[in-house]
User: Which sequence fits this backbone?
């Protein structure tokens, strides 16, 4: 036992290099939190839609990209002030989610879930093509009032305000979502539909309306993710893809169960990539989240934070 | 059956209204700048993409010649067989990554040549096949081209395409002048997996030659004693960094760290901190546009204010507009050719015709068509072996540079170093090799 | 309230209901009895709009298939399904809250407190998850969830199924109180209990009504009833005994 432990410690020591002290750790921590935040937001979008409709929409990634482009369009081409542009983007994304529900999901109701998931993939390609035609494929940039601001010094580490904002906004959104899901009639209705669609409808829960709202909300969440990551990098057609993968992995880690579970899953994704990957085998760090996901699928297919399908609370 | 009877219009009204809002919003946008810059999403900046220079420019070198480049006027040639060229590249809209530049540059040259009487009195028939980026799609398109038995094949913008298609071209014994400068595509490549052959000529400068030139440039310009390397984790990054590392060592310059990142990296904290710990004088970067942007900005955030030299992707990073001023002013890029700066007159003509400024790919593909013309004229026939041998003797003054065939069948031996100080692209050095 | 005429329900080639007519008037408690596979559940599912049907089902004059499940529920036609179908991921109280969705502003229904008064056992477990309830508790929640919707007609599908006799008694005690305020269409195999509660009943077999009349008439003709149901009654009694 102690020998095995000693062996493990030696292996870690061989593969990992703990340099840079507190400053490095804090930098990596905040990078992990900001990547994790985006993963968490994307995962919430997946979860919400899955709960309300059973569908896992792979259009989420391109919706993130679209959100960033719509915000860019409002600011650059329509001269909207940034806050207004953000709000209008979220409103438009909500509407686009409803359109997606009507054109890609509603007509396929009753078809195999695989058909619907493939349809979301088709929708993703259509969205991408529309962005390419509308905004062209040149990498561009999204304004943020925090961009280029002096970094905040925390324990010697320079943390850009954009990263802090991503984290804080995500925490707020998660708190609001948890409150909505556990305290409002809408939240209870979505959970009822997720648990037993037919019985929910027998008690007057309007499944169609719920599915439209769920598509709208998860698309707006994707838009928010786009607005948050857009300013941290070049915006191009691939902007949302990585975030979607991270979000999907986060949702799997959380077992597509509880809201808190997938959010924690998101932060595990970000932190494992940045902190574990920062010190150990850093050439492979981008693979860490997925390795983590595969291990979870193998060891605990129901996810880390769900007590089996019947028990989880949103 | 449950919900079927609900009135259809009530379920449609919201989406229809929203769609019309969206449609209206998009419709208004028509007056927008015509696709300013063609680039691709995130394809290898080593190949299909390089900065197109739409940005405002300061110091512009004046063009050598505006009109069709003059080649040594051959004695009046009369061909009795037809001349045909097939271009293997996509045009805008054929895939999300497709750019207009290859098709436009080639078309411009073909139109000029035919307007002036063609080659050897024969009108040049030119056809384009939209070759996909995937290797098998490229082979498919190449075989299609081979079936048509053209005089010369031109195109293939990405290394994967060239590596897959070059053996087919050799088998078919049709001369080809290809775009991507993957090291394996050159005749003198010594490693494993080389596909270079006597039928294939390459009209972009070699990636590895540029890497060596970058080292020479930073040595002359900044005389660093310690340099950090950052290389995107793909064959292009690895090969270029290997060359740089060797060249740096030969110059006695210490390599403090060699970091890598994925082409789609969105956070470069680890790399920035590792490089900072080595305390270098300068950073050489072989990367993609997005990681360059993120990395350059994170360097400044962490107080690392040293020159940062990348290749062609730096231009994209600059044009995307995401660099902070400080990060931008420390960044250097290397480009094959910036027609808007190096040949304003030709660029103006191009822009008149196609509604947007040209980039390196347009200029080089335009040049390649004239290289073919000169070769056929020198060969005095369209016999494949004769044209091939004539291509091997190329010396042609193009838009940005003079092309000369080297022992590896490479044609292009120049590049320029630029910076972006003050928000404009400025040529600071011309490299030739 | 509810008029069912010539109802036909088929699942592919299987005809589960073959021309059933039945009505429930205001203030009435009507039983629908019959052996396993007789088509009772199918009749209820058609009546609440869950499956498509031939013939007609009108609730307060409106054709249910036109209303659709959700609208029919909102109009006050509340169906407590066979097997309870509690929302396992919601607490007891949240289950009731979802039930209130169908209330649609009707003032005359049960409040949450009235439900807890009717089922005192639930009062202490408002925050317990649906997944952690016993069969009897689940049935109480299912009925309570229906009551908070202020039903204009309550349709219950085998509320005694799988419950211990003592629990069955408690459920029927509650149903008796409910029936004073709300019309009920009760599907049961427990004929004795059902006939005590109902004013009228119909016996279904092979998808057809084979016998109908007032509760008193049917109780008097228990021999015929037994010929339709006897086998199952014995069987059920045994099953209940074993479970208890
Ligand atoms: N979804 C279905 N698909 C096919 N056949 C079905 C389906 N549901 C019910 N049936 C068949 O229809 C017939 C009537 O079933 P139904 O459930 O209505 O009977 P029931 O009277 O409620 O029986 P029980 O007392 O067992 O609940 C049975 O033969 C049953 O097998
Ligand atoms: Mg039944």
Assistant:
């Amino acid at each position: 036992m102690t020998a095995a432990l000693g062996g493990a410690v030696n292996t870690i020591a061989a593969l990992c290099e703990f340099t840079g002290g507190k400053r490095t750790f804090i930098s990596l921590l905040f990078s992990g939190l900001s990547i994790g935040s985006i993963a968490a937001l994307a995962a919430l979008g997946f979860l919400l839609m899955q709960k309300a409709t059973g569908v896992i929409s792979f259009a989420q990634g391109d919706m993130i990209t679209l959100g960033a482009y719509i915000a860019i369009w409002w600011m650059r081409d329509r001269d909207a002030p940034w806050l207004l542009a953000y709000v209008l983007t979220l409103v438009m994304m909500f509407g686009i989610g409803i359109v997606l529900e009507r054109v890609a999901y509603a007509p396929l109701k009753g078809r195999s879930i695989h058909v619907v998931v493939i349809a979301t993939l088709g929708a993703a390609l259509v969205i991408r093509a529309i962005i390419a035609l509308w905004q062209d494929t040149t990498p561009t940039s999204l304004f943020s009032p925090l961009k280029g601001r002096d970094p905040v010094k925390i324990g010697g580490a320079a943390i850009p305000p954009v990263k802090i904002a991503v984290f804080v906004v995500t925490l707020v959104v998660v708190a609001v979502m948890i409150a909505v899901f556990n305290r409002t009639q809408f939240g209870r209705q979505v959970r009822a539909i997720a648990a037993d669609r037919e019985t929910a409808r027998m008690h007057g829960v309007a499944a169609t309306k719920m599915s439209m709202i769920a598509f709208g909300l998860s698309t707006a969440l994707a838009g928010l993710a786009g607005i948050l990551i857009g300013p941290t990098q070049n915006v191009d057609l691939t902007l949302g893809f990585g975030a979607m993968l991270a979000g999907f992995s986060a949702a799997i880690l959380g077992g597509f169960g509880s809201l808190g579970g997938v959010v924690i899953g998101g932060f595990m994704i970000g932190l494992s990539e940045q902190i574990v990957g920062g010190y150990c085998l850093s050439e492979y760090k981008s693979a860490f989240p997925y390795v983590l996901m595969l291990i979870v699928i193998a060891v605990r297919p129901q996810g880390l934070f769900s007590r089996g399908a019947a028990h989880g609370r949103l | 059956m449950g919900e079927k009877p609900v009135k259809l219009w009530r379920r449609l009204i919201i989406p229809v209204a929203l769609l019309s809002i969206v449609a209206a919003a998009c419709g208004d946008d028509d007056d927008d700048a015509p696709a300013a810059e063609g680039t691709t999403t995130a394809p290898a900046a080593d190949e299909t993409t390089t900065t197109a220079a739409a940005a405002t420019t300061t110091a512009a070198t004046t063009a050598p010649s505006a009109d069709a480049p003059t080649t040594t006027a051959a004695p009046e040639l009369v061909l009795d067989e037809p001349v045909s060229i097939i271009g293997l590249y996509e045009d805008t809209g054929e895939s999300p990554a497709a750019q207009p530049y290859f098709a436009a540059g080639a078309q411009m040259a073909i139109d000029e040549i035919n307007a002036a009487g063609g080659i050897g009195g024969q009108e040049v028939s030119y056809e384009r096949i939209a070759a996909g980026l995937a290797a098998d799609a490229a082979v498919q398109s190449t075989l299609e081209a081979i079936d048509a038995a053209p005089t010369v094949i031109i195109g293939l913008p990405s290394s994967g395409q060239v590596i897959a298609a070059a053996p087919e071209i050799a088998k078919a014994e049709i001369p080809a002048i290809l775009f991507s400068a993957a090291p394996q595509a050159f005749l003198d490549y010594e490693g494993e997996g080389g596909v270079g052959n006597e039928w294939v000529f390459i009209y972009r400068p070699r990636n590895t030659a540029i890497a060596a030139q970058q080292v020479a440039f930073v040595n002359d310009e900044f005389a660093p004693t310690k340099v950090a390397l950052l290389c995107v984790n793909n064959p292009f990054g690895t090969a270029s960094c290997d060359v740089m590392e060797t060249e740096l060592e030969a110059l006695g310059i210490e390599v403090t760290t060699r970091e890598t990142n994925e082409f789609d990296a969105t956070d470069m904290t680890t790399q920035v901190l590792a490089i900072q710990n080595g305390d270098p004088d300068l950073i050489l970067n072989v990367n993609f546009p997005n990681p360059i942007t993120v990395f350059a900005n994170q360097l400044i955030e962490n107080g690392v204010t040293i020159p940062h030299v990348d290749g062609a992707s730096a231009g994209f990073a600059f044009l995307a507009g995401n660099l902070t001023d400080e990060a931008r002013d420390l960044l250097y890029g290397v480009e094959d050719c910036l027609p808007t700066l190096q040949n304003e007159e030709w660029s103006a003509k191009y822009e008149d015709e196609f509604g947007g400024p040209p980039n390196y790919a347009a200029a080089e593909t335009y040049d390649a068509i004239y290289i073919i013309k000169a070769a056929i004229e020198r060969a005095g026939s369209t016999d494949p072996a004769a044209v091939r041998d004539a291509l091997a003797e190329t010396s042609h003054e193009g838009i940005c540079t003079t092309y000369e065939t080297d022992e590896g069948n490479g044609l292009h031996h120049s590049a320029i170093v630029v910076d972006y100080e003050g928000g404009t692209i400025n040529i600071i050095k011309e490299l030739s090799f | 309230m509810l008029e069912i005429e010539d109802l036909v329900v088929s699942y592919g080639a299987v005809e589960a209901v073959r021309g059933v007519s039945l009505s429930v008037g205001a203030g009435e408690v009507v039983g629908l009895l019959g052996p396993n596979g007789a088509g009772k559940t199918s009749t209820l599912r058609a009546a609440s709009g869950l499956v498509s049907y031939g013939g007609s089902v009108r609730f307060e004059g409106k054709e249910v298939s036109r209303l659709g499940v959700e609208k029919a529920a909102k109009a006050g036609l509340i169906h407590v399904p066979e097997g309870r179908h509690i929302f396992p991921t919601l607490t007891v109280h949240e289950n009731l809250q979802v039930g209130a969705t169908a209330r649609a502003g009707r003032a005359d229904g049960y409040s949450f407190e009235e439900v807890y008064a009717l089922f005192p056992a639930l009062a202490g477990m408002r925050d317990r998850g649906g997944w952690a309830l016993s069969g009897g508790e689940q049935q109480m929640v299912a009925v309570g969830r229906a009551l908070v919707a202020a039903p204009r007609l309550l349709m219950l599908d085998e509320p005694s199924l799988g419950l211990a006799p003592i629990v069955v008694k408690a459920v029927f005690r509650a149903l008796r109180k409910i029936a004073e305020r709300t019309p009920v269409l009760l599907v049961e195999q427990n004929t004795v209990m059902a006939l005590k509660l109902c004013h009228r009943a119909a016996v279904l077999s092979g998808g057809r009504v084979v016998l109908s009349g007032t509760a008193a008439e049917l109780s008097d003709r228990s021999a015929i009833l037994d010929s339709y149901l006897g086998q199952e009654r014995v069987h059920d009694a045994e099953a209940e005994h074993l479970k208890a």
